[in-house]
Design brief:
Rossmann fold; 2 domains; binds NADPH dihydro-nicotinamide-adenine-dinucleotide phosphate; binds magnesium ion
């Protein structure tokens, strides 16, 4: 079980819930990082007394140094600061709760320093899956999924014999716009898209849930985590978010993981694996829920899932391009510069127009493809 963590993205939804788990189980906090929300970070520093904090934004880091001058916590900034936090001595696990592909380099830094990684930052695997996998092997460290679907699959796989797996069945809530037609989606607002039925999450992933891009990213994430191709990953819409995902075995037995929708279960399991410890999460009352419903995904209205599947089949840099296009499109949607339906349009076109130059890809190739894709999209509008 993890004794000390370094927590990247401490001020976000997953970051705060990770600190709930750390508080409850007396897990030490060696380092914390944030981008801009230093008010939250200050409270966290005063409660958890980390040795180091990184405030990515340089200006805010300078001000933050003054705010916490009465503590013994060292303040660093920028990308180098993130590396320092990811590699801090004494942390056995790095929790990566950063949003977006900005989480990729810190994940690699953590692995290089011999840390296990509890990964919420799915963009790490979507953009850099091949490199992350080979680095994990090289440094003999473990990566534990925090994403609820992947944690569910990981939990279902415990005790499952090698070669028994037939397919993964990932559940999707359907997001804010389940059941709507394309016509109805034309004029939806940022506020509409931010209303998730079951989970309270950061803005980017909530928009990703509304477009179903989140499920597309999760299919790619699952293919790296569990070594399966796109044809062995089913997606089923399950509105209640009670079944967090399933595995189907060769004999067609299906194993599911259920629970109240609360990220503290997968976060805690990633930190205590293989132990099971008490948790503040509400017990599941099946009679209160009474019914669970399932639907096929509507791929005509919500195109992002299929676009991600295409990117995954093409392989190489295509998933990184789909991810970068989506990050740029979501940013513009949140800034009210484009409409909701422009998001799948932008992501689809980016994948369609991209032509890969290389078979085997390097970290440099990924970072370049990410930067070029973003620039092209952000400059066009
Ligand atoms: P939030 O937006 O709530 O938090 C993101 C965190 O990352 C914040 O601490 C933020 O700092 C920091 N951050 C933002 N930009 C950068 C950057 N460029 N460099 C370094 N740090 C940065 O996101 P969530 O907690 O919702 O999601 C985090 C990750 O977990 C995402 O990849 C998401 O897909 C995944 N995930 C989230 C779930 C959830 O329930 N929220 C469920 C499953 C997966 P600041 O606050 O200072 O801006
Ligand atoms: Mg998920």
């Amino acid at each position: 079980m993890t004794k000390n963590i370094s927590l990247l993205g401490a001020t976000g939804s997953i970051g705060k819930q990770t600190l709930d788990v750390a508080r409850m189980h007396h897990i030490g906090v060696k380092a914390l990082t944030a981008n801009t929300r230093t008010d939250i970070l200050e409270q966290q520093v005063r409660e958890f007394h980390p040795e180091l904090v990184c405030v990515v934004n340089e200006e805010r880091a300078k001000q933050f140094k003054i705010s916490i001058a009465d503590t013994s916590t060292k303040v660093v900034s920028g990308k180098n600061g993130m590396t320092e936090a990811a590699q801090i001595a004494g942390a056995d696990t790095v929790v990566n709760a950063v949003v977006g592909v900005a989480g990729l380099l810190p994940t690699l830094s953590a692995i290089e320093a011999g840390k296990n990684v509890a990964l919420a930052n799915k963009e790490t695997l979507v953009a850099g899956g091949s490199i992350v996998k080979s680095e994990l092997k090289k440094h003999s460290v473990q990566l534990y999924p925090v994403d609820s679907e992947h944690s569910a699959i990981f939990q279902c796989l415990q005790g499952c014999p090698d070669n028994a797996l037939k397919k993964l069945i990932i559940t999707a809530s359907g997001g804010a716009f389940f059941g709507k037609s394309k016509e109805e989606l034309k004029n939806v607002t940022v506020e509409d898209a931010l209303k998730h039925p079951n989970w309270n999450m950061g803005a980017k992933i909530t928009i990703d849930s509304a477009t179903m891009m989140n499920k597309g990213l999760e299919v790619i994430e699952a293919s790296w985590l569990f070594d399966v191709g796109d044809e062995k990953i089913d997606v089923v819409v399950h509105r209640e978010s009670i079944i967090h995902s399933m595995i189907q075995l060769k004999d067609n037995a299906v194993i599911a993981q259920l629970g109240t929708a609360d990220m503290r279960v997968p976060i805690q399991y990633a930190l205590t694996y293989p132990e099971r410890l008490p948790s503040p999460v509400k017990e599941l009352d099946l009679t209160e829920i009474a019914k669970l419903s399932f639907y096929p995904p509507d791929n005509d209205t919500f195109e992002c899932l299929e676009i991600c599947r295409r990117a995954l089949r093409k392989g190489g840099l295509y998933p990184a391009v789909a991810n970068a296009a989506n990050e740029a499109a979501v940013q513009m949607f949140l800034e009210r510069k484009i409409g909701f339906l422009d998001i799948p349009d932008i992501v689809g076109k980016a994948v369609e127009n991209f032509s890969s130059r290389n078979e085997t890809i390097s970290l440099q190739d990924i970072l370049e493809a990410d930067r070029e894709t973003r620039q092209e999209i952000l400059c066009q509008r």
